[in-house]
# Entry
Amino acid sequence: MTEEINSKEIKELPLLASRGVVVFPHMVIPLLVGRDKSIKALEKAMLDEKEIIVTTQKDETIEEPGKEDLYQVGTITEIKQLVKLPNGMIKVIVEGVERGRIVDFTEEEEYFAVRVETFAEEIEEVDTEMKALMRSVLDRFQEYIKYNRHLPAETMMTVVNIEEPGRLADIIASHLELKYRDEQRLLEAVLVKERLNKLLDIIQDEIEILKVEQEIQKRVRKQVERTQKEFYLREQLKAIKEELDDAEEDSEIIEYREKLEELDLPDKIAGKIEEEIKKLSKTPGMSPEAAVIRNYLDCVFDLPWGKVKKENLDLKKSERVLNEDHYGLEDVKERILEYLAVRKLAPQKKSPILCLIGAPGVGKTSLGRSIARALGRDFVRISLGGVRDEAEIRGHRRTYIGSRPGRIINAMREAGSKNPVFLLDEVDKMTADFRGDPAAALLEVLDPEQNSEFTDHYLELPFDLSQVLFITTANVSYPIPAPLLDRMEVIELPGYTEDEKVQIAERHLFPRILKEHGLTKKKINISTNAIYRIIREYTREAGVRNLERKLAAITRKVGKEIVEGRERKARITTQSIEKYLGVPKYKYEKSAKENRVGVATGMAYTQTGGEILEIEAAAVQGKGKLILTGSLGDIMKESAQAALSYIRSIQKKLNLPEDFHEKYDLHIHVPEGAVPKDGPSAGITIASAIASALTRRPIRGDYAMTGEITLRGRVLPVGGIKTKIMAARRAGLRKIILPVENKKNFSELNSKLKRDIEVEFVEHMDQVLELILMDGGDDEG
# Structure
């Protein structure tokens, strides 16, 4: 046989770069085209003779290939069909015509266009060697089809009658599952004999690989059959056992049944557990379902179904324990002792749900532990801060992989008794999202009428929580949903007074800090006056958390001195405080406030305790706008609008021109602009600042005030009176304006807190303006 490959002609064609796909002559294939250059190349081809050369990229990961990224040999194809898809891509069906080698590129910007050298396969005759080669390829291809499940047996019929060696090689190559680089080697084999030899080697390699794959599949199939056989035999054995009804149960099932008999459970609950035990006995021990049932039964038997811890009902002993652990907090202690007295008289009475609301550091969490100690009960605590999934409370249903009970049931397992003190910490920090509202799930937990049959999604059994003493804690009450708040008895914990903080420091904080740092009172002593100075000049808080940090800082520094060789006892006095804590952070007993125009002093209640707010107002030439700055919340903004409307209603009393609201812009600012502020209690303070700014009359700087204002000028009561008065005392203010309806709250304060405080009770804004607006003075406006 003589074989020649001659250059036929040079064509100029658009080029389509394909990724991971090699097109052979005589092959019909659909291609999905999405790149701009490729789409423009197709459009160009459709305008001409519908011919395009398809060339494969050397690296299929390149998004925008250059000419150096393309193989030189490709296939000239004819476009059979072209469809534009809704997503902007094009589906094109092409048929390979002949091989072509790229000579050079004539266009590279908008699309690839190339000059292509085509080849014609001229075979004078098919000799014996070529026939033998063709037969070998056909035999190997038939064997390949036998091992490859993806190719139907009918594929052989498409190639067996082909007499042209080159066409036979190309069509068989197009049916093989090869890597695109191997396919490119076959495409570049221009000589037919060379192409058939390469194809023969490739098919032989693929057959060997397919044989190994088949062996692996046989082994896997045998393993699966063995497992199925074992399962079938187990099922038969189980059926035989059930038929004989005298099969010996394994030790695990016996143990579970013994545990069930020990528990005195209602028939409904016991029946449900018995069903689970039966299900476990019929389930293969190594199956995943068996592990799920075991976990469930372990959870059920870990719960304290009938374990009730005997509680201490001795009021005097309980009172002594409460006083040992906490100084002050009389309201909470009194409520716990009342509860004990009622329990003694009526043992069956349900436990109350207490909600302790107060600033950070006042002892809410530690008080829960102390209550458990006083009652002689177990104590468990869960933090609800940041919880946003209902399943955290109620648990996950057992249909989910990795399901588990909720925090309530887990905590009861941990408690080990049916009547612990259960502290739900930070109940105001819960949030809701698409997974549900945990606050809504708590409604059942904290309702004494419902929690006797609390049902966890995982447990699916009613569990009695009615004997649990639930105590929740929060910094503020407004984020707590109203239905949840309604189920709880709220006890507010206002901040400590200075005297209370000193007692707490001397009785509790300092002894504990000394023990933690390995020191004794023989090594260090701190005077009462020094503690007073730390409270006044180094902390500003409602609780004692920062006070504890400052005392710990002093103790650490003294400990360092002792390690370095100090022998004398360290005596911490008011004079030596700065040596250990540095320059004071706050100024105690501020000098009398200046009388300033447009600046009023208000009292605010925050999550960290009481604060003094200076509210500034300025009237400037403008068009009557109200500008509010200082990170104010919606309620505070509405208070400012109500205050301005009231001032406009009394313009004649204040001798203001009738059109002042059209000529002046009012800017109200509350300093510390980065700190968010909200609430209605600044209403009279804002109104006072506006009146002062418009009349140019200074406000008395020695007054602090709080109260909500209405459009008619009425002053409504507000909360947090004790905390606000403590903040005023810290700032050195002794004259305070309060709503008349808060007189009862003021009268409940202890005498030490009320000492030296001069309070004016008002019911209308006119009274406030008479007290604070001066006829003359410093004009800072």
Remarks:
- The longest helix spans residues 192-244.
- The chain has 27 helices and 24 strands.
- The chain has a mean pLDDT of 81.
